Structure prediction request, 339 residues.
Amino acid sequence: MANQLKTTLLFAGLTGLLLMIGSGLGGTTGLVIAFVFAGAINMGAWWYSDKIALKFSGAREVSESEQPALHQQVAALAANAGLPKPKVYLIDSPAPNAFATGRDPEHGVVAVTSGIMNLLSKDELGGVIAHELAHIKHRDTLISSVTATMAGAISMIADMIMWAAIFGGFSNSDDEEGGGFVGGFAMLIIAPIAAMLIQLAISRSREFTADEGGARIAGDPLPLARALEKIEAYVQQGRNAPPTGGTPQRAPQPARQPQQRRQAQTPGYGFGRSPMPAPAIAPQLEARPATAHMYIINPLAGGGLIGLFRTHPETAQRVERLHLLAEQMRSSSPISDLV
Prediction:
């Protein structure tokens, strides 16, 4: 019910934003055009937002014959979660990451990168998949997919306004000058509004809940904790790379918890592949700001306008909570049913 309300607010917010822009730039004619445009976007976002998100990410569906072990793992975890088996998609990228989409559990999709399959062990990958299944079970995926479509539409409008401002295409009359200033000012307002809509639609607590729900589906929180540390270390390695020249920095090593010090390092699973050494500069996932919030860890660096779209809590906080949950599960302390 809460996600349905958030989706409705997203539709209303985008529609109002487009109508305001259309009226301000084109008067009555602009208002009518904006209304038609907003209606088309809203309908497309509701019915095709998952397909648009998959297209943006470059994901392709893989059959069971192509990835039998991955399909088997997804099917087993979906059964644990009491969900129908989602479709399985693969993103050909060395950067480790994953996301889920689909407007309901019957249309669920789990997408993973080739990099995450090479980096993580089998149980760690299972923890990531379980996290994504928790999103599907909690019906977070609809709001995530719709948000991606909305943010993409707003970014497109911002680009249109920018170019129109450059060429002076939005002057309301021949006597008016400074249309470029008005257009540029509108563009500066649009990005924060888009970020605000996303922040309203997606709360950071959603990731905490999916972490805990995924731990319950997988039966152990620690593999997911290790997976998050590995993915975060990889992302940080890309963020620490010098922009031009200079000496590349190695990725920071994830902090070891007491439980990890007593446990040998899990070998890379990679569905039968041996673990690969990390390069000096890690290739990063080619994600868009509109879809970055969908991944288990935001693949984009913070700062600037991208920082406005931050929706994930700090990875260290997520890992800490998972270790606390593991202690609770080991001591048989009662915990809330999160899935």
In short: The two ends are 16 Å apart (CA to CA). The mean pLDDT is 75. Residues 71 and 110 are 10 Å apart (CA to CA). The chain has one domain: 1-240+251-339.
